[in-house]
Amino acid sequence: MTRVFNFSPGPATLPEAVLRQAAEEMLDWHGSGMSVMEMSHRGKEFMSIHAEAESLLCELMGIPAGYKVLFLQGGAIGQNAIVPMNLIGRTGRADYVVTGDWSKKSAKEAAHFGEVRIAASSEEGGRYTRVPAQAEWQLDPKAAYVHYCANETIGGVEFFWTPQTGDVPLVADMSSNILSRPVDVARHGLIYAGAQKNMGPSGLTVVIVREDLIGHAMPITPSVFDYKIQAAADSMYNTPPTYAIYIAGLVFKHVKSLGGLAAMEAHNRAKAAVLYDFLDKSGFYSNPIQREARSLMNVPFWLKDAALDAAFLQGAQARGLVGLKGHRSVGGMRASLYNAMSIEGVQALVAYMRDFEAQHG
User: Fold this and answer.
1) Active site residues
2) Domain boundary assignment for the chain
């Protein structure tokens, strides 16, 4: 069996060790005689899987007391509505910082539930290439929360600092960089993330919410989306995405075995440096993102001549490099370098890019 180097933005590559363990346990999990897929979510077997996954995540991220971890469904796009339904009713308004397509969509969705202000935006000519400095932000002290996207998957713009919002709770979409490096959870009121980048398969959404922010849901909020109801039921108000939680637990255990989030950051910075260093020295490829905001997770780049895009992708596939096509809204290429991508994969990509440039430059 030959595995490709998968640069897809999500669902993304998973650690091979995790996939092998899941394969070994597929038919019989720890002598239970059944697959995790078949277990009752209220049975003792799955309850132990659920508890271990939650415990490992708390350990890895240093989640302090006073927070609830919820394992939900609906993806980050679902949370674009669920967050305001649970939080915006506290004051009726919220601030959003827009640094790319995902935070722009988040703000648009939230506007259905209250008054939404764009506290800062880095959009210039329809493109996003930076993170607005804190001095540019115009924050409303009466906002129910301030929302930002920690890493923009499409545009490749990432926050490397935690915004200061005073007494107003800070909400972060960390779907594409959660577990990639340490984060100060205590400086956030709520963090949410789809699992399909760094944590596991699609279908699972993790929400980390400060307890004082629970219990303010708007009357229109469906019960299954009410953080208070889900927290009281330990994420079991409805059947949770059991197999996705199981895989996430294996990923958490794997990350811990590698040295935790500090080790992940060193690994991810080393990988990204290989690709960015090559891009900076090339006149054939380009990346327009300001250096201090360049994502470690998603690296968009463009060929000098877009007419060569199809040939580039075809040649990459022939060398076992897949998932490199850029998002349809911006074109070009995009290499996603999530935790499970090896440095060997990035080196193979750069070697191919160098060969392609020599042939077509």
Assistant:
1) 102, 173, 197
2) 17-257, 260-360
